[in-house]
Amino acid sequence: MKPSGNQPPADTMAEKAPHRIQVVFRQPERVKLPETLSEKVRTTAPGNVAAAFDELEKLIGLQEAKKLMYEIHALLRINKERERHGLKLEKQVYHMVFKGNPGTGKTTVARIFGKIFREMGILSKGHLIEVERADLVGEFIGHTAQKTRELVKKAIGGILFIDEAYSLARGGEKDFGKEAIDCLTKALEDYSNDFICILAGYTDEMDAFLELNPGLPSRYPIQLQFADYTVDELIKIAETMVEGKEYRLSTGAREKLRLHLNRIRLDLFETNFSNARYVRNAIEQAIRKQAVRLMTVAEPTKDDVMTLLPEDFVWSAS
């Protein structure tokens, strides 16, 4: 088409048009910030501390225990900032009470806590000394104090873990268990900078024990409840156990174990179920049953010797 008489040629218009600069506004790249406390700790902690936390994070369940350690790490970090600003530091007491049924991870958590406390600089060694009443209580006057002091010295730099701690109060006023408690109480004050004591046991018994000793709750300000595992968590624990032993559960074996755990949890609802310990015993028994079963196979394949089948899981009818 020809340009109209009133309109200049296109090339003339282009020459007279103002020069336009196109400006493109780019959105700033968004950095994904950690959404949870555990992510914040593990992304900001030094490598050795993060590695210790990874070991804790691999444990199935135990959310309260994990949350506690993340809070302690956060407090230590903020204390450094407070110190930089010349503010008072928040001093914490880390003696604890672990309450819960057997097999809920109390000893395992205590051992990992020791490692984390060492990496965070709270403990110099981080080792765990696990004891019970018989290790602390002597047979004559003075013997208990001697035994208790020796065990405390072994635990310096780490954690003294006293299982079924409520048994120290079972013998009454004249029992030497009270002497062990008194000796421990003194140790908490004498070695407060490089020593942590953890009292552990069944929930009801530990609550009664703490009520009988009014001075103990203030000396053990951290109390953790270890809940029974759900059946789903127990199945995950079973799978982790067999994988660690280089075995595997067939689909049928997994479902048979799940059904059994559901039934046994209902049957033992009012009694103490040993949780992960029960699963570990069941896996070890199944491995023995599998070995007997494979004795009839001339040349078992790799798949044969690795796989646990439903018939390997056998329980009594009761």
Q: How do the strands of the widest beta sheet line up side by side? A: 2-3-4-1-5
Q: From the structure provided, what is the oligomeric state, counting identical versus distinct chains?
A: single chain
**Can you summarize the main beta sheet?**
5 strands, parallel
The level-1 CATH class of the largest domain = Alpha Beta
The CATH topology of the largest domain comes to Rossmann fold
Strand content: 5-15%
By secondary-structure content and strand pairing, the structural class works out as alpha/beta
Name the overall outline: globular
By DSSP, the count of extended strands is: 7
Q: How many helices in DSSP terms?
A: 14
Number of domains: 2
CATH superfamily of the largest domain: P-loop containing nucleotide triphosphate hydrolases
Report how far the terminal alpha carbons are from each other.
99 Å
Named at the architecture level, the CATH assignment of the largest domain is 3-Layer(aba) Sandwich
